Every structure is written in structure tokens, then in C-alpha cells.
Amino acid sequence: MRCIVVAVIFAVSVPVLARADSAIEHVSFQPQVKGLRCLKAETVAMIRELVEKIGPIQITSTCGGRHARNSQHYRGKAIDFRPLATTPRKAAAVAKTLDAVGGVGSYSNGLVHVDVGDRQFAWYGFKRSNRRLAYNTRGR
Q1: Which partner for 86 in 28, 90, 112, 135 could form a disulfide, CB atoms 3.0-4.6 Å apart?
Q2: 3-state secondary structure (DSSP) of residue 36
Q3: What secondary structure letter does DSSP report for 129?
Q4: Cβ-based neighbours of 133, under 8 Å, separated by 6 or more
Q5: Three-class DSSP category at 4
């Protein structure tokens, strides 16, 4: 009887796990990015949801590298990516609609920053001094 219950639970859960991993299959990495191991679980879940909405992405930065002081990257709560199937502007717009996303930023070179931090704002700019802030008014 236990074998049947375990078999049924396994059969029901496999399609769900397969769907979750299929989203991650559409993620590629630049050579300096060593994978998703340093990211928090909520960040990986946000990546899955983002990929389901906008298609494949190439992650250019996770936890390593140089970032602003107190960056969400250092906490495992942020990524920078390049959308491969849509424009950076559309990717940032979709990211702003996700409940898990706290901050969204875009760079002039086509990269998009998303994080699951507490702050809810969006920015665009070439350098920090030239950034224009656009506060996200949606509530959680």
C-alpha cells in the first residue's frame, strides 16, 4: 500500500518539477557567472517566473563581481541579465509586474537588473550620477 501511495505522489509531482526545471533550462550564463548556487530560493523562484513570462535570458551577474555598497547582489537577492527573446524595455516592464520583484533597473547597454529586496523602485541610467528614479507605486 505504501508503495502505491509513494508512486502516486511521485507521478503527480514529476510534471510540476519538470515544468520548474524547464524554465531554468532557458537560462544561460556569461563565463564569469558560476551558476545559481549563491542565490536565495526566492531569487531562483523569481528567475523561473521571469523566464516563463519573457523567454530565455542570459545572466551576466549574480553574487560575485563589483556592485554598489550594500547591493542586493551580495545577499543573493539580485541578478543582472540580458533578455534574449524580447527588448530590455519590455523585460523590465514585465519584471515590474511580478510580485516577487522589489527593484528593477535597466542599463543603456541592454542589461536589466532585478532583485527581490524590500525597496520597490525602478531606475534607468548610464552611471549612478545620471540615474533617473521612477518609484514603483504598486503595493505588495
Answers
A1: 90
A2: coil
A3: G
A4: 121, 122, 123
A5: helix
The answer for residues whose C-beta is within 8 angstroms of residue 99's C-beta and 6 or more apart is: 140
Joined grid coordinates for residue 100: 516577487
Burial of 128 (0-12, 13-18, 19+ CB in 10 A): exposed
Enumerate the H helices of the chain as residue ranges: 2-24, 41-54, 88-97
Place of cell 542570459: 58
Determine how many CB atoms are found less than 10 A away from the CB of residue 104: 24
Q: Does the pTM of the predicted model rise above 0.90? A: no
β-bridge partners, 78: 115
Tens digits of residue pLDDT in 71-101: 899 999 999 999 999 999 999 999 999 999 9
Q: In 3-state terms, what secondary structure has residue 115?
A: strand
